[in-house]
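Exercise 7.
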Amino acid sequence: MPSDHHTAIGLGFLGVCGEHTVNFLLHHAADEVPEGPVRHRSTAAKGLLAQAAAWVGELCPGVDIQAAAIDGTDVVRLSYGFAGSNGTRRRPTNAGFGLTYALPIVVACLTARPGSLVLLENPEAYLHPQGQTRMAGLAAAAAAQGAQLVVETHSDHVLNGVRLAVKRGLTPDQAVLHYFRGKGEAADVVSPSIDRDGRLDQWPEGFFDELENTLEQLLS
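Solution. The predicted structure, written as tokens, is:
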């Protein structure tokens, strides 16, 4: 993918859709991820590239990442390795799209500092349920370190991941929930409260209960 040195390095901007992430990751590979909730404990390495690889492996088990500049061009190469593949590496086009979609989110969370604002739209896209829950855990970790994240999601796994993060230490006032309920041409904004055990005081209809509704029809 083409690199943009001024945007990714001079401005430190990943891009609206994360399009400068690989170039940013390449040039900041050795930058230390600060001690705190976002630092992944599976590796002793503290550099951004190693930490991003650890989190990607959390979302998609058995996967690692590499970023490298292509000599003589304005292009940066991203590749994935998979456990048990005997060292074979794959281009993003030959791997599940969820990996490339998730990488900018991982890097944004790892580099978010206190006071930063991160906007995430459907961070669960293309991830399996476990990965969706772990993605919510990463976002919650960034919030615990003082960043503000505004997350739009359609996934009960993401919401449950946030609830689990609260039960494990994120304070309820760091996890504010809202959902919209249609009302003709308008909509009501409903804001469930979440307690220290991750329990909600009200449940969006058709969200958490859809699995039970479907199973009831299958068993009837």
